Amino acid sequence: MAPKANSTENRTRSSISIFIVICMCCFFYVLGAWQKSGFGKGDSIAVEITKRTDCSVLPNLNFETHHSGPKSTQVLSNPVKKFKPCHYRYTDYTPCQDQNRAMKFPRENMNYRERHCAPQNEKLYCLIPAPKGYVAPFPWPKSRDYVPYANVPYKSLTVEKAVQNWVQYEGNVFRFPGGGTQFPQGADKYIEQLASVIPIANGTVRTALDTGCGVASWGGYLLKRNVLAMSFAPRDSHEAQVQFALERGVPAVIGVLGTIKLPYPARAFDMAHCSRCLIPWGANNGMYMMEVDRVLRPGGYWILSGPPINWRTNYQAWQRTKEDLEAEQQKIEDVASLLCWDKVSEKGEIAIWRKRVNDMSCPNINEEDKLSKCLSTDPDAVWYEKMEACLTPLPQVNDPDEVSGGEIKTFPARLNSVPPRVSTNSIPGYTTESFQKDNNLWKKHVRAYKRVNKYLDSGRYRNIMDMNAGLGSFAAAIESPKLWVMNVVPTIADMGTLGAIYERGLIGIYHDWCEGFSTYPRTYDLMHANGVFTLYKNKCKMEDILLEMDRILRPEGAVIVRDHVDVLIKVKSIASGMRWNTRMVDHEDGPLVPEKVLFAVKQYWVAGENNKTATA
């Protein structure tokens, strides 16, 4: 016999039931269509509740331009906590890459440029303001070439990189000609050179990693070839390079090859790239090349352009000795040989290697005196894990020609194909059947989202983040050249599914939502949070996560939160004090399903608009 619910539980359930009825009544009232619904007495109950309830919507035009459907209602019994704006000096605040905090850490191996998050007593409990004059970014693809000056008001790169054609300041906009240190004639011509060696055109290469990306022009121009590049660069003296990348609508994060492993799974990328990225590849016994080997897919390509390649011709221009450059290249060649990478091309200042397809074909694998194997049994366990000079073994194969980990289809076929990690039962709890069910479920969810947020796939939202991505099925359901999705797999998730996401031809990153994300403020247009607040219950404060979402989100950006109704009521309460306009709607299967969806839009406001700032 089931235990009886106590009186508190009964009251909670009654409140939730009334809340659902109120939301339904508001929907009909606003539409002006009080028709018989087939629920008998439900109609008269709804009319009576409507008479006693304020079914008004917060008066914000921007919310209406984003959304349609049922109107929201205020059912909050407790006073809403209002968050004040932070001081304008925090306009570009990055909580885990703060410049002042960084200088307290060792410079060896770029440790000071890695993640160093603010302790709890230094966290900001205020809203990060947009700079004065902030405007919505240009739509893609115009955004690739133009960024409003007011959004990223830093001209230093236009001076430092003037001869390299990175960025130019023209009136009230920055123009990005597509140049780079190693491709002053433009990224397009540079990529054409790479495509003469690497199968970029046929969908074999879909995911790429750009180390030391600058303003991410390489990744920006790969997009028209249907290649998604995960670009990263540190927050350093080249102010705002990653911020420029994201403002252009190109995937990027703040990051560096330093002392800890990259936040990506093993065998993730089809191609990795360094264009004069100044990473000492041969140093530390080849540790950085071994980390690239870990994240590179079997048979994937590594591109190195710039010093020391073609040193015989360029040593004087680079102001380095022949001996120094020759020794540097020899170290790189030695490590590549040790890893059984095949050098497939060296032309001019561009060298390209191809990773082995399995370990059976590499004689060095079992010679410990030459190459030590990593001791970790999980090559995807990387969050704050120390980087080491060791080889990450590939999954075993039965044939020298077999691709370790399984063959992957070309894109776009691989998007909805069962990922090898799933089909081989490498992720406990996931099967071919459960993958297909998950894929279909998210197609259904996205159709329901579009009925409320009519701009979801219109191009209005370019940079999208899925905060708890699972198998990446939300991203797959909205996949379009108009947008891209940063698929985040929380470090506390039950299963590490990020490898399967990459096998689908999508990109993503590991992250702990109790900490700040490795990005600048105002860099995403839409954030999707499925079960995030339930997942982090008792892990960190709900307002910490919501304030971080507010920091990441652009003014007039949208949020979709999917969770249990009692969780969403708390989220709605906090969000109402953050200058978000919110609306809760039922699950697409009806009002009796306890899972609901909260839609929100961040209001437009900027620094200095008669805002009383917090004292932080």
Could you characterize the architecture of this molecule?
By secondary structure, the protein is α/β, with parallel strands linked by helices. It is built from 20 helices and 17 strands. It has helices spanning about 5-30, 40-50, 60-65, 100, 140-145, 155-160, 185-195, 215-220, 240-245, 285-295, 310-315, 320-340, 415, 420-425, 430-450, 475, 500-505, 530-535, 540-550, 565-575, and strands spanning about 145-150, 170, 175, 205-210, 230-235, 250-255, 270-275, 295-305, 340-345, 350-355, 465, 485-490, 505-510, 525-530, 555-565, 580-585, 595-600. A 7-stranded mixed β-sheet has the order 6-5-4-7-8-10-9. The protein has a 7-stranded mixed β-sheet with strand order 13-12-11-14-15-17-16. Strand 12 (about 485-490), helix 17 (about 500-505) and strand 13 form a beta-alpha-beta unit. Helix 1 packs across helix 2 (about 40-50). The radius of gyration is 26 Å and the shape is globular. The model is unreliable at about 1-65 and about 70-75 (pLDDT under 50).
List keywords for this structure.
20 helices; alpha/beta; seven-stranded mixed beta sheet; 616 residues
Summarize the structure.
Belongs to the methyltransferase superfamily. The protein has about 625 residues and is α/β, with parallel strands linked by helices. Helices cover about 30% and strands about 15% of the residues.
Please state the structural category. Answer: alpha/beta
* Number of DSSP-assigned strands: 17
Mean model confidence by pLDDT: 87
Q: What characteristic shape results from the CA principal axes?
A: globular
Query: Which consecutive residue ranges, at least 5 long each, have pLDDT under 50?
Result: 1-65, 70-76
Provide the β-strand percentage band: 15-25%
- The order of strands across the largest sheet is 6-5-4-7-8-10-9
Measured on Cα atoms, how large is the radius of gyration?
Answer: 26 Å
Distance between the termini: 55 Å
Please give the oligomerization state of what you see: single chain
- Give a short account of the largest sheet: 7 strands, mixed
Number of helices: 20
What share of the residues lie within helices? 25-40%
